Amino acid sequence: MEEGGIRKALSDAYVGSQLSLLPIRPQTCNRLSEIMAAPAVESRPVTAALRSVLLRVRQAAERAGTSPERVRVVAVSKNKPVSLLREVYDAGHRCFGENYVQEFVDKAPQLPGDIEWHFIGHLQSNKVKILLSTDAVPNLTMVEGVDNEKVANILDKVVSSLGRNPLNVMVQVNTSGEASKSGIDPSGCVKLAEHIKLHCPNLALSGLMTIGMPDYTSTPENFRTLVNCRSQVCKALEMSEDQFELSMGMSGDFEQAIEAGSTNVRVGSTIFGPRDYAKKK
What we know:
single chain; alpha/beta; TIM Barrel; eight-stranded parallel beta sheet; 11 helices; 42% helix
């Protein structure tokens, strides 16, 4: 892989990781010049893996006829040590995601405050206040997995009680029909989106999220379903589809997801390596 291509990919996808598609608040952590001036550290496997992913993101965006700056890469670091996150941070990346609340609140204070944190796991109502504590994760930018009115209402109430700025959220849609997956049925996504928009003033509805099937054989259908859901939601809420995000695509299918229209991909093991689930918290 040529160094010039890798650096171009890092530039494009880094900017994408900081991109603020409305209503996401602008970030203040653009160190693009520093990243471009820094030499590549290919001896570090995680850094090389990050650069490879960013190049693939750029290529997928080009195949889709869209700008790489439209795609945010969330580096998903569940079950990984802070030292690995620090390596990815030192390479210039600023957008990270976690699945488990306790692991999230343990890790975040150990890392710099300019990280854009996404919570992407299933959120239980009794964990909301822990997650939103300003002492734990003051730079929490997005909660991607809102799939029912109860969680939305609790998030809204806790955000208000803590005096936080409105929190960006995505509605999680179960596009694969698997009982093991979280997410609202596609038929209910408009109603939930309307509830958040009308009754949760402390939440900023930013888009929709889905998790594809584990063997990646049905993801085109899953992705098309989410695209259709976005059209329905935006029509009902009189919102522009260009300003409403789609979070779809993980390590095994993020390129297909980008080609289908994803603006937010969640990449974990392809960057950080295989996970040891025995360490799950």
